[in-house]
Each structure stands twice: as C-alpha cells, then as structure tokens.
Design a protein that fits this description.
Blueprint: H1 3-9, E1 14-15, H2 21-26, H3 38-41, H4 43-55, E2 60-62, H5 70-74, H6 82-97, E3 102-107, H7 121-138, E4 142-148, H8 151-164, E5 168-173, E6 176-177, E7 183-184, H9 191-201, E8 205-209, H10 214-227, E9 233-237, E10 243-245, E11 248-250, H11 255-259, H12 262-268, E12 272-275, H13 281-293
C-alpha cells in the first residue's frame, strides 16, 4: 500500500525533516568518521535527531543512511556492515516516528562514476538492492534516493529499489543554476530530463534537494510541473547558499525566511516540503506552521 502517496492524493501537503549531517557534527561526529556507524555505536544520539524533527512537526523523517552503500562504507572499513548499519538506521527512525509518521530510507550516491568506468551498472544495481532491502527490513515506508547528479545512477537506484522491495520509491536530484539561468546537475541533467527518465523508471515521487535555497527550488518545481502535472514532488531546500565565515560554513536563511516561501513552493506544485543543509528543527517548525496556515 502506497501510504505516503495516498496521503498526498487526499490533498495533504506533508512536511519532511531537515539536515542530518550538521546535527551529527554538533553531537560530536568527527571529520573522517563514518556517520552510519553511529547507528550501532551511538544510537541514542541518532534517535534524538529523528525525535527532534518529529517534535518540530515533521510528518516524515529520514534515516541516518545517506552514505550506507557498500561503496561508501568500504572506505571506512565497514563494507561488511551494509545490512547491519542500514537496518539499524531504519529501526531508529521508525522508533522516533511511531505508527503515525512516515520514515524515508535515505540512499545517497555511491561516489563511483559509470562514465569513467569505475563501476558497472550491475555493480550499482547490487549495491542499491542491498541497501534498499536492509532499509525495508528496518521498517521504512519509502526508499528516498537523493542528492543524485548522474541520471543513469539515479535510474539504476530506482530500479533496484522497485524490483527488490515493497516500499514506495522516491528520487531527488541536485541542480545548480548555470549561465543563462537554467538548472543542471553537475552531470548536465535538467529537471525536465530527470522528470521524464525517473518517472519512466518507476519512481512514485520525484523532486530536488540540496544545492539551493527555497527561492531557486520554486523555479525547479515549475519546470518539473511543465513536464509532468501529476507526479508528486518533494523539495528539500538548503537554508540558502552556504557562506564561509570565520572558518565555518554557515547558511543565511533563517527559519522565518524559509517559511515565507512556503506558499510559493506549494503554488508551484510541491507536495512535500522539508529542509537540507543548514536547516534545523526550528526551520522545520516554521515550515510546518506555514503549511498549516496555507
């Protein structure tokens, strides 16, 4: 049963969570440390992050599994821990979400380039299959394939999740504005190309995350809607574009700044609104209030 899609079809606008990486760093994650290992070594800290977003009003919370593919975990010496780390990630977020909120199993890029011959399509498929099965075993409602830039990798990830789990499958890509004002991924893919290919691959929902604040996300959603008027769309915006100040990366958009754009992003066609880099539970609280008022 497609529980999240059913909720959206009933006309609800859902609110997702915010950033995980910066939250983990605030709790002591060190440079070069594997975030997914905390699902085993420090599960209470991971649980606290998920609970914080649920308390802020998020309808959906992600899992601490963005880098949970075999390719990523091998770099930390945890290549044999894919199932353990991902299942635990899902169980932790499921505990925070309870039965009345949704859990999105986060799946990020592998970091391997098909076009450079670093990996085969079969290798990618198996890696995404392995991760998706573990997330489903831990209790996620949907596989959230996110921050993709390579259309082929995204397509393979969607296919692996669809063919090997009973979860809803979502996919977002990350775009930047180029000269001329168009949006493209690092691999040159437009929101239009993403929408056409990823929907054909079987995704239940598509969208965009990271790389941009809410203002630019509005334009990307509009482009997606010109291609497909019906597919549900998710937006996880940064709290603006990052700035490097006094040796630290900061994000300029306040919770109020992001919330002020909620009406526009919904009018453009977004069905789920949440945050990415730089966003906090307070950003999500303000977004939730704006959604409720819209």
């Amino acid at each position: 049963m497609k529980k999240i899609i059913s909720a959206l079809q009933n006309g609800h606008i859902l609110v997702s969570d915010g950033a995980w990486g910066t939250f983990l760093q605030q709790k002591g994650l060190k440079p070069g440390e594997c975030p997914e290992s905390w699902n085993i070594s420090r599960p209470n800290d991971v649980l606290d992050i998920a609970k914080s977003y649920i308390a802020a009003g998020a309808n959906l919370v992600e899992t601490n599994s963005f880098g949970g593919s075999r390719f990523k975990l091998e770099k930390y010496g945890f290549g044999d821990k894919v199932y353990e780390f991902n299942k635990a990630a899902a169980e932790i977020s499921r505990m925070a979400a309870g039965s009345d909120h949704f859990v999105l199993g986060s799946v990020g890029p592998t970091g391997e380039l098909l076009m450079m011959g670093e990996v085969t399509e079969g290798d990618l498929y198996e890696a995404f299959k392995e991760q998706s099965i573990a997330l489903e075993a831990g209790g996620v409602d949907a596989i959230m394939i996110e921050t993709m830039t390579d259309l082929d990798e995204a397509r393979i990830a969607v296919k692996a999740a669809k063919e090997n789990t009973n979860c809803e499958v979502f996919c977002t890509m990350t775009f930047q504005k180029i000269i001329g004002g168009e949006f493209r991924t690092m691999m040159g893919i437009s929101p239009t190309e993403m929408a056409e290919t990823i929907v054909e691959a079987g995704a239940d929902l598509i969208g965009t995350n990271c790389g941009n604040g809410m203002e630019d996300m509005i334009e990307m959603v509009k482009e997606i809607r010109r291609v497909n008027a019906t597919i549900p769309v998710l937006v996880h915006a940064n709290a603006g574009m990052p700035c490097f100040v006094d040796g630290k990366t900061t994000y300029p958009e306040t919770p109020e700044d992001m919330a002020a754009r909620v009406d526009e992003i919904i009018a453009a066609g977004a069905n789920i609104v949440g945050g990415c880099c730089g966003t906090t539970p307070e950003h999500i609280r303000k977004i939730r209030n704006a959604v409720m008022a819209s």
